[in-house]
Amino acid sequence: MNDIAHYAPANIRIKAQNCYKSIPIQLTKDNHKFQYGVVEKKATATKFETSIEWLNASFITKPVYVTKRIEYPMKAFVDETNFRLYMTDIGMLFAGFDFSLKKMVLGDDSLEEKALNIMLGTAKGGLYEALAADMLIKKGYQDIYFYKDVKSTAEIEFLIEYEDGVLPIEIKAGRKKANTLGNILKQDNIKKGYKLSLQNVGCTDKKITMPMYMLMFI
């Protein structure tokens, strides 16, 4: 917060700080899309988009944009008005939560068991997403996307491009089946996909399952 106050232009300083402080709240909602109304009631992109651009350019935050189609090149199908905003350091994100949530995450029980606790609730999915985003950012991926079908609940948390095309990465906080990933892998243009969850290493057809920490190795 002090860095933003020190380096951001005076006309966006407070707005940039407010956008940054809103990220933990944004990620605990059912819909993780960045919403300007969470920063300030009835706010619009016109007021805050310059502040978001400054945070991204300073590498304090990283936007992940929605793509309307899962095919190369994904930049051609991006909707720049629909994005999720992640902090570039998972520790800084946790610092934005109150002590009760931190205590649950650092407790002795597994996160899967603690998911039943109403205090953790929808925050769990956002925390796992943010952790995965942090790993992908640290791996050096410049362009990261996500997919969400507005007509259904189909969603893939992350999509990156590599030498064989598009690589889907589905994040599951528990052990639930990755139905969306399975459907996407039926496409001939998708060579493989990853499911990151609490499960052990495994491979079924084109789907590779790994525990969360192994995302750093893909």
Task: List its traits.
218 residues, alpha/beta, eight-stranded mixed beta sheet, 9 helices, 8 strands, 22% strand
Your description of this structure?
The protein has helices at residues 2-7, 13-28, 36-39, 45-57, 90-95, 99-105, 111-114, 123-138, 179-184; strands spanning 61-67, 78-87, 145-148, 155-162, 165-171, 193-197, 202-204, 207-211. It has 218 residues and is of the alpha/beta class. It has one domain. The protein has an 8-stranded mixed beta sheet. Helix 2 crosses helix 4. The model has no long low-confidence stretch (mean pLDDT 87).
State the distance separating the first and last CA atoms.
Answer: 33 Å
Spell the H/E element sequence. HHHHEEHHHHEEEHEEE
Strand-residue proportion: 15-25%
Mean pLDDT, to the nearest integer, reads 87
The helix content is 25-40%
Taken together, the total number of domains comes to 1
The dominant shape is globular
Structural class of the secondary elements?
A: alpha/beta
Major sheet: 8 strands, mixed
Rg over CA atoms: 18 Å
Task: Tally the helices.
Answer: 9
Number of extended strands: 8
Short description:
By secondary structure, the protein is an alpha/beta fold.
